[in-house]
Amino acid sequence: MTRNRSQSCVKTGPSKLKRLLSTAIHHSRVWRAAAAFALLAGLVSTAWAQPKETLIWLLRDLPPTMILEGPKKGQGIIDQMLPQLIAGMPQYQHTLMRVNRARALQMLHEESLTCDPSLLKTKEREQWISFSVPAFRAVSNGLVARQEDRSVLEPFLIEGEVDLAALLKSGRNKVGVVAERSYGEVVDTLLRQAPEGALTPHYGNDALGSLLHMQRLGRLQVVLGYWPEIRYQASQKLITDDQLEFYPVKGTGKYLSGHIGCSNTPQGRQAISEINQLLRNLSREHLDSLYADWLDPARRTDYLKETRAFFEQQAQQ
User: Fold this and answer.
1) Residue 27 zone, left/alpha/beta (φ > 0; ψ -120 to 50; rest)
2) Which of 114, 126, 285, 314 is most buried, most CB within 10 Å of its CB?
3) Do 159 and 289 meet the contact criterion of CB atoms below 8 Å apart?
4) Second-level CATH architecture of 53-138+257-315
């Protein structure tokens, strides 16, 4: 009996062993598949869990491009454009930060991913700021004086435009300016060459409003700025259009381009590449009309016509 059981075991052993091996292999495969799936799930989970890179947007009260206070809050061209850009860039964690001009330029020098949605492009700034394609068009700057002070500018008028170089060189009247602001290549060059004491720079979030207040009090006769912004800020100080006279600066042209500028780092240049794609696909008609609404009727028609032609030409490049 014992021998028979032994023979029976000898006969059936290999079959059982084969089944055990098969089961072990099967479980091993299942385990490896499960392990691979867990690893893959972990990688996917980790990828989804990765924090988004923070993009800081630098804002300031700059009507009619940005309006951060007052009854017209949020109705500037940048106020309406920026949410569209943010919606088109979900790969970033967007942070809005209100700063003055000097602080904004300081932050653009830093390594953080920082962008300013309303900058003039200059050769100097291109050394440390990465610029977008033109984002909007603006009326060029000029000089504003009270009606009773128009005579101070008359000796420097050439066909209705002010010879700013001659005015600054004369030293007769100080010109109020917003510190650290660019007024375009032509005017920036003249301001850098201005004799000592020819300018009255003002810092702060409400620099232009403060300069207009000084002008109203008779402490300053001439202020440099953009007419739509001057009109808006003057209205906040209860100064009406007919109390002021605006003169373009000779050699500046009627309009200039506003750009978005980001820190000139690999991350900043990548952001500008993405911003450019979005800008080229924006609907211009509504955005341009937001700026045009701040102009007097005669200039409004001309602005819309020239701006439309400008961006149509840009689209072909």
Assistant:
1) alpha
2) 114
3) no
4) 3-Layer(aba) Sandwich (3.40)
3-state secondary structure of 105: helix
CA contacts within 13 A on the Cβ side of 104: 28
Q: Which 3-state string (H, E, C) describes 113-149?
A: CEEEEEECCCCCHHHCEEECCCCEEEECEEEEEEHHH
**Cα–Cα distance between 182 and 180 in angstroms, integer?**
7
Which token pair is 30? 């299942």
* C-alpha closest to that of 204 among 63, 102, 55, 62: 102
Homologous superfamily in CATH for domain 141-248: Periplasmic binding protein-like II (3.40.190.10)
Tens digit of pLDDT for each residue in 112-139? 999 999 999 999 999 999 999 999 999 9
Q: Which residues pair with 116 in a beta bridge?
A: 261
> Domain residues of the chain, as ranges?
53-138+257-315, 141-248
Q: Determine how many CB atoms are found less than 10 A away from the CB of residue 315.
A: 10
**Topology match between the domains 53-138+257-315 and 141-248:** yes
This prediction has a pTM of 0.79
d(CA 36, CA 40): 6
Cis peptide, bond prior to residue 297, ω within 30 of zero = no
Q: Using a pLDDT cut of 90, give the percent of the chain over it.
A: 65
- Give 7-49 as a 3 state SS string: HHHHHHHHHHHHHHHHHHHHHHHHHHHHHHHHHHHHHHHHHHH
Query: Strands 53-59 and 114-119, how do they pair?
Result: parallel
Taking 80 as the threshold, does the pLDDT of residue 145 lie above it?
Answer: yes
Residues with Cβ < 8 Å from 233, sequence gap 6 or more? 63, 208, 209, 212
**Residue with tokens 């701006």, as numbered in its chain:** 307
- How do strand 129-131 and strand 175-178 relate by DSSP bridges? unpaired
63-103 per-position pLDDT tens digit: 889 999 888 899 999 999 999 999 999 999 999 999 988 88
